[in-house]
Amino acid sequence: MTAPLLDVRDLRTEFHTRAGVLRAVNGVSFTLARGEILGLVGESGSGKSVTGFSLLGLVDPPGRIAGGSISFEGQELVGLPPARLRELRGKRIAMIFQDPAATLNPVLTVGAQMALAVQAHGGGGDRAARDLAARSLARVGIPDAVTRLDAYPHEFSGGMRQRVAIAIALLHQPDLIVADEPTTALDVSIQAQILAEMKALARENGTALVWISHDLATVSSLADRVLVMYAGRIVESGPVAQVLRAPLHPYTRGLLDSLPAMGRPGEMLAQIPGSTPSLLSLPPGCPFAPRCPRADAACAQDPPVVGTEGRMALCHHPLT
User: Fold this and answer.
1) 193 CB neighbour count, 10 Å cutoff
2) Whole-structure pTM value
3) pLDDT (tens digit per residue) in 191-235
4) Residue at 258 is within a domain
5) For residue 34, what is the domain's CATH number?
6) How many domains does one find in the chain?
7) Strand pairing of 63-72 and 75-76?
8) What is the Cα–Cα distance from 74 to 59, expressed in whole angstroms?
9) Residue 245 domain-assigned?
10) In this protein, which residues make up the domain named ABC transporter (predicted)?
11) Please, are residues 229 and 48 in contact by the beta-carbon 8 Å criterion?
12) Domain annotation covers residue 230
């Protein structure tokens, strides 16, 4: 059996605050094969983005990785010296951040920033770096790419800046891309183009993707497998078609029922009652119990792992 490209075991990421320890990622485990696209979904505050930042060692104080393992091609990333992590980031492992305005340097042209990213990993001289940058911009649908290399980030629209951020991530054709809601600011046609490009990367180059999103429709059309997160834990996982067609966890069912497409014209949209709990004061047992229509006294205990091979859910009362 081929070893996975990425193997995450019992990952725990904490933030130490004056109010206490906030466990943003609490025992997350999963594997990712070459060329596989993994969707990571859940409400805001579920721990999706912090999981992505943890994979690249981008959690800053007061946050820290408190335990667990992140193995990339057999190399342990937790505790790896910063210099070695910098060698991997951008070249072998890339990240597309949600907010391109915070990603791009406002005082450097797009071409200069992309050239620095190329040359940081031995990408050759100025001309070679500029040519590679232009090709990457063209791949994400930016017209007149050579000319736009000399533009500054503020000269692009929000959607165009996001395409630039995606182009930077694609420069070295990395083995793994962690994408944190990268198409939120894009119009539908460009979003479709980017999704097609990501699928082609996975298929042709064996690039693996962790696609973080709250958009179940996008995940269903892109991902091979999906992980559903709630309160820092993975509460359900499995092949995307199976999970979205027949979820095991009531939380996953609630997310699906909340989609506008599930309602009828003129009717109120369904919603999950209540709100996500504070990670500083989680209820005992199942953290979803206060919002769950199936909860009973048993849910005050930690939920068991249920499911068949390839499917998993943490629930005392899974859906059938």
Assistant:
1) 17
2) 0.91
3) 887 788 788 878 888 899 999 998 888 899 899 999 999 999 999
4) yes
5) 3.40.50.300
6) 1
7) antiparallel
8) 22
9) yes
10) 6-256
11) yes
12) yes
